[in-house]
Amino acid sequence: MSSPHPTSYDDTNWSPRPATAADVEPVAELKAVVMRPDLERLGRYDTHRVRQRLRDEFRPAHTTVIEVAGAFAGCVSFAPYKAGPGYYIEHFYLAPETQGRGLGTTVLRTLLARADAEGVPVRLVVIRGSAARRLYEREGFTVESEDPIDVLMVREPAVPGVRQEASSPAASAISAVPTVRKPSRA
User: Fold this and answer.
1) What is the pTM of this model?
2) DSSP string of 44-104, one letter each residue
3) Which residue among 7, 17, 94, 154 has the highest number of C-beta atoms inside a 10 angstrom radius?
């Protein structure tokens, strides 16, 4: 029996769609599952709080749902950065069964290409000690600041002001999703 999730991902076997208000509960549940190990390690996991913070912060207009084989597989928010030029990535969660096979890299590179085309930086917060930090560092993010819980990372544009075209229908769709939020902790 084959898995509905491929062994690796490229621009052809996943699809983005704009989030709707109805996506808040699946996204809140995914956040609770994905963030639990890191939050428990830091002594900050609270089953209600982790979901409620997502509900309070969820903005469908800036969020893309990621689907694999037509099923919900994750989400990412890509919004203008409130404290300066550029974008802010937030609520980037992938279902555990899709992790480690390139989907996160593919989605992230799609977002970074959009910022590169505009010649602007991208920021995000990762929890201290999170394995996700390796992905961000591989894609050029560096530490801007940190505290005992969060690490604010920034990636400057790879080729400032040089327009690049999206390479696939999935990349075009995620790049077209409208994108204003402030960094927040889990």
Assistant:
1) 0.80
2) ---HHHHHHHHHHH--GGGEEEEEETTEEEEEEEEEEBTTSSSEEEEEEEE-GGGTTTTHH
3) 94
